[in-house]
Amino acid sequence: MNDAPFDPDAPAEGDGLFGLPHSPDEASVVVIPVGFEATASFRRGTKDAPTAILEASRQVDLHDLETGDPWTAGIAMEDADPRVAAWEAAASADACVVIANGGRDAGDGERCARVDAIMRELNAHVEARTKHWLDQGRIPAILGGDHSVPYGAIKAASEKFPGLGILHVDAHADLRVAYEGFEFSHASILYNVSRLPGVGRIAQVGIRDFGRAEREFAESSDKIETWFHTRLAWQLAGGANWRKLCEDIVRPLPKDVWITFDIDGLEPALCPNTGTPVPGGLNWDQALVLLRTLAESGRRIVGFDLNEVGNDEWDAIVGARVLYKLAGWAVATRPA
Fold first, then answer.
1. Considering Cα of 198, then 201, then 207, then 212, what sign does the dihedral take?
2. Number of separate domains in the chain
C-alpha cells in the first residue's frame, strides 16, 4: 500500500477499485474480473462490465451508513487475465452462430461442444483463482460477464465450506438444462450449481421469468426454495412486511453462504442495459434490506458474484454500488 495518508473523503485517485490504494495481496475482498459472455442469449455488452464498473466505482462514497467503513479491510480487483478475453472471443464466434440458428437442434452440435470445452477451461481458471484466495483467508468476488461465469467459484467455495448455502438474486430461475445446447449456459448456472455435492440449500429471490420444467425442477428439489416475485408482490400487496419476508427467505440457509447476484433481479430502471431485462423485480431498498437481513442473521458470507451488468454508464454506477454493498456485508460477517 502507498505510504501516503489515504483520505476516504477526497476525490478518488489512482487506478484501484473504488479509488482504493490496496493491492489484491493486501485486501480482504479480492474481486476477480471475468469479462465473458459467450452464452448471452439476447443483448451483449456484459463482458465489458468489469472495466465499466471499475471506472464508475471511483464515484462511490466510501462511508456507508449500514456497514461503516468496509474499505479499511481492503477491497481490490485483480488484473484481468488475458486468457479470458481470448476464451470469450473464441467461444462467442461459435456461440453466436448457434444462438442465431436457434440452438443445437439446428445442427450445431460441434459448435456447442467447442463452446463447452472452452467454458470448462474458464471454469477451471475461475475455480483456481477462487481457491487461491479462499486458502489465503480472503473473500473472493467474481465480477462478470454473464451469469455463467461464477460456476467454478461456487464449486471451489462448496469444497471449502461443505453444505454451502446459496442466496440467488435474479429475474430468471437459471435452472434450464444445457440451454441452447450449451452445458454451462448462463441460463443453466443454478441447475449446475444445484448438482454440486458441496452445495446445500439454495434460496432464489426475484424470480419472475422461467419455464415450466424449471418450476417443476425447483418445486421437486430438496435443495431449492424459489421465492417467485409475483407471489412476494401479492403478499406485499396484502400487507406483508418485507423485512419479515426477508427473514423467512434466509431462514433455511446454513451458516456459510455464497451470494450470486444477477443484476436483472432488480427492477429494470436500475439495470436498463442488462442482457435479459424483465419487468418487475426488487427495488433498491428491498435489495439492501435482503442483504442486511442475511448479514445480520449470524450467517457468514464467504464469497459472492455480481453478473449481467450492462456496460452503460448508469448500469455501471448501480453495479458499483451493489458491489460495494456486497463487499461491505461480506466483511461485516467475517469472524472477529
1. positive
2. 1
